[in-house]
Design a protein that fits this description.
With 65 residues, the protein is an alpha+beta fold. The chain has two helices and four strands, in the order E-H-E-E-H-E. A hairpin with a 4-residue loop joins strand 2 and strand 3. GO terms for molecular function: metal ion binding.
């Protein structure tokens, strides 16, 4: 299942990478991609969206479902 969350605060490629890595560390995530242009991250896997939001926020960005 693919879920999309909004991520604010990404300004460069390194930011995208940081968000992707944070999301991929969540149990159940099989793939994650972040796009600073659209301010969104797409996540594949069986995981609760609140866990995704928390992982992004723990990485220092603002996220919402």
């Amino acid at each position: 299942m693919t879920q999309t969350i909004t991520v604010e605060g990404m300004t460069c490629g390194h930011c995208e990478q940081t968000v992707e890595e944070a999301l991929q560390e969540v149990s159940g995530v099989t793939d994650a991609t972040a796009d600073r242009e659209t301010e969104q991250a797409s996540v594949d896997g069986d995981v609760n969206v609140t866990e995704l939001v928390q992982a992004v926020e723990d990485a220092g960005y603002t996220a919402s479902a």
